[in-house]
Amino acid sequence: MTIRRRSFTPHGPSWLILCVLLTAGLQPAELLAQRNSRDDWQRVPDVIAALAVSEGSRVADVGAGDGYFTEHLSLEVGPTGRVFAVDVSDRALRNLRRLVENDGLVNVEVVRGEYDDPKLPTEVLDAVLVVNAYHEMTEHEAMLAGMLRALKPGGRLVMLDHVPSDPSETRDEQISDHDIGIDVVEPELRAAGFQILERHERFVERGRGNQWMLVARR
How crowded is residue 80: how many other Cβ atoms within 10 Å of its Cβ? Predict the structure, then answer.
């Protein structure tokens, strides 16, 4: 699968660059390099394949952050599909709304989630994606219940997160380092009612930035 780049208007990508520049103090060239570099290592086509979404699908990006995956999902599901970009951070929500407006992502709905509820409609989603956000969910059991509730029967949950430097640490110790191990998360997904389909302990390998991936279904 080839990653296709969206270009709704000439102002969308430049707006995002300037927004992050103002908040992070980086130069535009550095920001472009970071985003292009992420395309090189993030394995977006494999993530999309794991979600099993296509034209017309409805999918949620929970913990959407700066909208990196939201943009890719918007293109994948097309004008007849729907992407729910969920976050709890005011800053992330502002950035997402401006990204949607400036890039013309008419099939994206920005959703203000709660710490214990992703605020998603019931049994309408084909898939849910959570990238580098599960370790931040303080009410993870309630969040998993909300995501399960939002999925259609057979709908998929794809989760990626950072591989901890010491997998033997407790859950609390891992999340204090903004990591969480696949061996911690897998039983939590099962307990929430998900069926595990795939387990990739080293989905992305890039030094300290290693990521695992779990693919599950309702």
Answer: 10
Same domain? 23 vs 56: no
Is residue 195 situated within a structural domain?
A: yes
Both 184 and 204 in a single domain? yes
- Rounded to two decimals, what is the model's pTM? 0.85
Does 32 share its domain with 131?
no
Closest CA to 130 of 41, 64, 50: 64
Number of domains in the chain: 2
| Same-domain check for residues 54 and 151 | yes
Domain range for 29: 9-41
DSSP line for 73-126? HHHHH-TTSEEEEEE--HHHHHHHHHHHHHHT-TTEEEEE-BTTB----TT-EE
Give the dihedral sign, CA 178/211/59/33: positive
Would you state the structure tokens that stand for residue 30, as one six-digit string? 């550095």
Return the amino acid letter for 114.
E
Q: pLDDT of 30-85, one tens digit each?
A: 545 566 688 889 999 999 999 999 999 999 999 999 999 999 999 999 999 999 99
**Rounded CA separation 27/45 (Å):** 28
The verdict on residue 134 lying in a domain is yes
Handedness of CA 64, 65, 69, 75 (dihedral sign): positive
Residue of 185, 81, 85 whose CA lies nearest to 141: 185
